[in-house]
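Structure in, sequence out. Go:
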């Protein structure tokens, strides 16, 4: 398949081809000035083709820039963009209380300090809330956002501006230091702690972060628990040969802490800046690798068939939009950006939702029903009770976990009916997902045009994540930064 990518040396847009070779999907491209580049795109061609079925053309919830130099230089969002903001990111500072060898973005290394003012933060959040439909979720990031002065007030501001989901991406150090801080964040309205968590032993931390950090992570989780923060998502940066042997153990660790850990969201490593080819090939890992390793390391309890791409759930939005007659957020991101599933944990065993629900049949039913309602035909199912009964055919009752009313649960996923069923679902399940952020080596413009994870910036733009990190970050930060003087050691 022909597409466009970036030259990793000069970052110009160049032609690229995504092609199949020996059961894998690869990307190749040639820059007239810097030569040829080849990388792995998806390591399982069969899974690639399966996921490709769920590609949709969505639309942006707001347009803020014009079509001029072409993608990805027109961000954004420009008129060509094909997804609304599902999750917004706002960097609060580029200072950090760690010095990870894999990160070149912190203030000490960059030599400048980037910290948007409170007024700029408010403007960015208002801009996100003015999308159609309003952006529902914001994640504070950095640097390390928890060391930003006034962080608790920033969380409160997000809540006042109507975000229904507020989360923080953190290394956990500040949370590990203070239970009281966790309590304050809970009271301010923080919902989820997106905790950098690379393994269940110290080895991966020493390699990826330069220090043993496991004890800090465990303390952070304990303080969240005591402070009343009831949702932690573990976020491992996955690198081949470093922590890919611990995927099963990390998921088991999450299951053992299900009272507070609600998910594991894996991020296969993206290589920022230049890296030599052998290092890149050694460390590169893609979404199918993760899915296969998880299957192996859970003795087949979470098989590869449990996973679906992000846009798989788009029929839910269509259906709810028609049923409730209000615009809904569409998860129209590219099918090869991410994969996810939900698993129940029953008597120490994993039971993926796909083991007892015909999820594909359920989604088809929603698409057909949405169309019927839209055409104003008399839709045969008029009541909530009727809908719940229609959903029964997608459930294998004998295989369903005990104590779960699955058809009520499906109706609740549609935002219709019993909230207690949804709460029960979240108490007993674990979200397992992966998103592979792109670097200049595997960059695909078809993916970034459909991105739903967007940075808000102080110059009133909304910039897709992978475009921001590959192209725009430096110029935005420099335009809004001051020189950074490293703290001098005390004499
Ligand atoms: S990534 Fe999206 S917003 Fe940015 S230039 Fe491309 S289409 Fe436009
Ligand atoms: S952040 Fe990158 S990987 Fe994720 S949806 Fe956007 S383009 Fe895809």
């Amino acid at each position: 398949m022909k597409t466009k990518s970036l030259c990793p040396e000069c970052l110009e847009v160049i032609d690229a081809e995504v092609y199949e070779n020996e059961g894998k999907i690869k990307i190749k491209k040639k820059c007239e000035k810097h030569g040829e580049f080849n990388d792995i795109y998806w390591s399982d061609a069969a899974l690639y083709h399966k996921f490709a079925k769920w590609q949709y053309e969505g639309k942006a919830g707001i347009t803020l820039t014009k079509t001029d130099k072409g993608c990805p230089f027109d961000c954004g969002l420009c008129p060509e963009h094909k997804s609304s903001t599902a999750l917004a990111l706002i960097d609060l500072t580029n200072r950090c209380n760690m010095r990870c060898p894999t990160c070149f973005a912190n203030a000490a290394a960059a030599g400048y300090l980037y910290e948007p003012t409170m007024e700029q933060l408010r403007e960015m959040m208002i801009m996100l809330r003015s999308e159609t439909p309003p952006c529902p979720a914001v994640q504070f990031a950095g640097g390390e956002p928890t060391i930003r002065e006034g962080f608790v007030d920033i969380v409160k501001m997000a809540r006042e501006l109507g975000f229904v989901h507020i989360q923080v991406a953190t290394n956990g150090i500040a949370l590990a230091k203070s239970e009281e801080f966790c309590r304050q964040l809970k009271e301010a309205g923080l919902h989820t702690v997106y905790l950098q968590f690379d393994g269940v032993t110290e080895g991966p931390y020493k390699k990826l972060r330069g220090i043993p950090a496991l004890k800090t992570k465990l303390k952070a989780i304990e303080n969240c628990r005591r402070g009343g923060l009831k949702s932690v998502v573990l976020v491992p940066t996955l690198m081949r040969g470093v922590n890919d042997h611990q995927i099963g153990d990390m998921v088991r660790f999450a299951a053992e802490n299900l009272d507070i850990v609600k998910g594991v969201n894996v991020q296969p490593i993206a290589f920022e800046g230049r890296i030599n080819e052998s290092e890149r090939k050694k460390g590169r890992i893609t979404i199918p690798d993760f899915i296969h390793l998880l299957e192996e390391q859970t003795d087949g309890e979470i098989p590869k068939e449990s996973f679906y791409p992000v846009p798989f759930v788009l029929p839910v939005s269509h259906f709810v939009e028609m049923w409730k007659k209000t615009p809904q957020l569409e998860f129209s991101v590219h099918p090869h950006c991410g994969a996810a599933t939900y698993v129940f944990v029953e008597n120490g065993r994993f039971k993926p939702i796909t083991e007892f629900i015909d999820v594909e049949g359920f989604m088809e039913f929603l698409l057909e029903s949405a169309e019927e309602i839209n055409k104003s035909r008399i839709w045969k199912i008029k009541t909530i009770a009727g809908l719940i009964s229609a959903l029964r055919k997608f459930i294998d009752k004998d295989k369903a976990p005990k104590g779960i009313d699955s058809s009520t649960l499906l109706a609740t996923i549609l935002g219709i009916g019993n909230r207690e069923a949804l709460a029960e679902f979240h108490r007993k399940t674990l979200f397992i997902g992966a998103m592979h952020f792109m670097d200049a080596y595997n960059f695909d413009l078809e993916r970034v045009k459909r991105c739903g994870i967007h940075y808000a910036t102080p110059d009133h733009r909304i910039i897709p994540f992978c475009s921001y990190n590959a192209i725009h970050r430096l110029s935005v930060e420099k335009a809004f930064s001051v020189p950074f003087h490293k703290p001098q050691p005390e004499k």
